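Run log, item B.
One chain of 257 residues. Sequence copied directly from the ordering sheet:
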Amino acid sequence: MNSRENQLKAFDRLLTIMDELREQCPWDKKQTLQSLRHLTIEETYELGDAILDNDLEEVKKELGDLLLHIVFYAKIGSETGDFDISDVANEICEKLISRHPHIYGDVKVANEEDVKRNWENLKLKEGKKSVLEGVPMSLPALVKASRIQDKVAGVGFDWEEPQQVFEKLQEELAELQHEIDEHNQDKIESEFGDVLFSMINYARFLNINPEDALERTNKKFIKRFQYLEEKAKEKSKSLKDMTLAEMDVFWEEAKKI
């Protein structure tokens, strides 16, 4: 691995290149905080894909793309006189120090859960009115539900045992089935949401990230379905013309790959 000196040189090189691009490149000169936003979100998802695939070479590349965006935002901030990369780095340094009194102070913790509780309590002392203020409203619903549950658990609002969560999930499933039997569409949607919320909560007790778990299943399904498409093409058939039994043969083959 590189020395700290080489790491700093690489970062300085990136800052210099950013200065040059902002001054000389027509595309880079036009960018704003707003125009970069959707690109940053896209880069974040690409990093997430690389992590799920355990493709470390791709993780390195995607981290570079995200780092570029951070430097880009800081450059724009320096042009308006609001902040620069030094302000960004120092801000997070100060936050990390203040949020880790068990490292930089005299607070004692026994485990990870103590750290998480301290973190949320410190945020409230900093002036936040709710522990849920830190959950971005624009997060996808599944990720948002997971973060909400993490946040409230951090201040002690939580189940004691996984079995309690599983029983709650069963309760919500029964309520969903009742509304399905009653053909009440509004209530079906509401109860379905409760089931999903309970499933996400149960995943937390199983030490499973529900977003990662679902995305792994998405990738698995895509791989198997594309195998099915390839086999149908080899037989000069359209999937629409195949029976479910025929398709199931190839689906079972795909599961063994």
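Observations after the first pass:
- The chain has twelve helices and no strands.
- The chain has a mean pLDDT of 93.
Flagged for discussion on Thursday.
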